[in-house]
Write a structure and sequence with these properties.
Blueprint (H helix, E strand, L loop, with lengths): L3 H11 L4 H14 L3 H12 L28 H11 L18 H6 L12
Length: 122
Amino acid sequence: MMTEIQVFVDGVVDGRLSDSDVEAWMRNVFENGLSESETVELTHAMLHSGTVLEWPEEWKHLVVDKHSTGGIGDKVSLILAPALAACGLKCPMIAGRGLAHTGGTLDKLESLQGYDVSVTPE
């Protein structure tokens, strides 16, 4: 049996829900909150809403991430990922593009002549 949360996440992923549907759901969550079990359920539904990457066993305890909250001054991602890699950590970046007025990390990287952002999970 699919729960309301799973139906919501599936609807966002497959495009069945309109922007106003998503906005209404998010407003409800903002105003009423989620219980701990609902938060766990939402996290689980989001985790399994797409491809889940699997890392080699030898990377256990080495995979880290820094996800940007955005903003005009956000330059940390571009500096931190290579610094972490230089320390032996694995920092696969989940990055976006076309984010409002600042552009996403991919937009910033594409501005470097010759830099190719079209990598695969392999």
